[in-house]
């Protein structure tokens, strides 16, 4: 029996909302459909943002507290809804899913790291897809990941995955010159990080808390663990499948 390729898929809020103010059930269906098609050759672990975006759809919190506490409260409201949407849709495609909430401090303690690894191994071996998010409700300002790109890279490294796919709203990383000329051109393959950093034009996404810079930093963490990173346009349908078939432009960081 051939060993399945283990993939960590990171999905940001902009991808999940398809750059609107609402979580797109259609996008989660697209992800489920692709995982179902690939399940004989690949096993998936998902790091998903979107808890705050879900909550904002139907809640407006009144508070004099700092914005970080309001966001943590929104995450608390939105997270169960986010997981419910995943579970409902994944079930339609014959997929089982589970929730894992992690904090930055979990990656600093050997015991926690061992527990994360062992728990996720049990889930994956029993055909459950772990859906991981930062534990926003308890994370403080100092120890927040700030962006799930870093959470994805740390998790990928800990679990020794074969590939990290970061779904974003561009066709990978564009050259600085092509952005200036307003004719974006994808950098297909990268092996030198210094050259890559010179190409970065940093901009935050609408719903997310990162930009292309945080994706490069995540890829750097993954590279230290000998994990290849793909930065792919998650707004497109069949984005994982098409990347495997080299049918779409995206960036490979080796």
TrEMBL record:
Residues that bind ATP: 10, 209-215
Gene: proB
Function: Catalyzes the transfer of a phosphate group to glutamate to form L-glutamate 5-phosphate.
Protein name, UniProt field: Glutamate 5-kinase
Cellular component, GO, one term: cytosol
Aspartate/glutamate/uridylate kinase domain mapped to chain residues: 5-233
Pathway(s): Amino-acid biosynthesis; L-proline biosynthesis; L-glutamate 5-semialdehyde from L-glutamate: step 1/2
Signal sequence, start to end: none
GO molecular function: ATP binding; glutamate 5-kinase activity
Gene source species: Polaribacter porphyrae
Similarity remark: Belongs to the glutamate 5-kinase family.
One GO BP: L-proline biosynthetic process
Enzyme Commission code: 2.7.2.11
Recorded catalytic activity of this chain's protein: L-glutamate + ATP = L-glutamyl 5-phosphate + ADP
Superkingdom of the organism of origin: Bacteria
This protein's UniProt keywords: Amino-acid biosynthesis, ATP-binding, Cytoplasm, Kinase, Nucleotide-binding, Proline biosynthesis, Transferase
SUPFAM superfamilies reported for this sequence: Carbamate kinase-like (SSF53633)
Binding site for substrate: 49, 136, 148
NCBIfam families: proB
InterPro entries: AceGlu_kinase-like_sf (IPR036393), Asp/Glu/Uridylate_kinase (IPR001048), G5K_ProB (IPR041739), Glu/AcGlu_kinase (IPR001057), Glu_5kinase (IPR011529), Glu_5kinase/COase_Synthase (IPR005715), Glutamate_5-kinase_CS (IPR019797)
Subcellular location: Cytoplasm
Matching CDD domains: AAK_G5K_ProB
């Amino acid at each position: 029996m051939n060993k399945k390729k283990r993939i960590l898929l990171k999905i940001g809020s902009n991808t999940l909302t398809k750059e609107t103010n609402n979580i797109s059930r259609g996008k989660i269906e697209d992800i489920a459909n692709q995982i179902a098609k690939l399940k004989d050759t690949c096993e998936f672990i998902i790091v998903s943002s979107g808890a705050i975006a879900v909550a904002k759809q139907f809640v407006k919190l009144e508070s004099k507290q700092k914005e970080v506490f309001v966001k943590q409260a929104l995450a608390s409201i939105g997270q169960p809804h986010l997981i419910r949407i995943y579970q409902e849709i994944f079930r339609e495609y014959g997929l089982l899913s589970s929730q894992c909430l992690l904090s930055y401090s979990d990656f600093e303690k050997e015991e926690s790291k061992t527990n994360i690894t062992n728990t996720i191994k049990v889930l994956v071996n029993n055909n459950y897809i772990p859906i991981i998010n930062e534990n926003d409700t308890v994370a403080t300002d100092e120890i927040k990941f700030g962006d799930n790109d870093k959470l994805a890279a740390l998790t990928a490294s800990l679990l020794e995955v074969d590939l990290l796919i970061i779904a974003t709203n561009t066709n990978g990383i564009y050259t600085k010159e092509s952005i200036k000329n307003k004719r974006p051109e994808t950098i297909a393959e990268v092996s030198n990080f210094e050259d890559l950093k010179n190409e970065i034009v940093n901009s935050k996404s609408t719903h997310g808390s990162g930009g292309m810079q945080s994706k490069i930093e995540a890829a750097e963490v993954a590279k230290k663990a000998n994990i290849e990173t793909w930065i792919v346009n998650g707004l497109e349908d069949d984005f994982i499948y098409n990347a495997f078939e080299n049918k779409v432009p995206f960036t490979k960081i080796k």
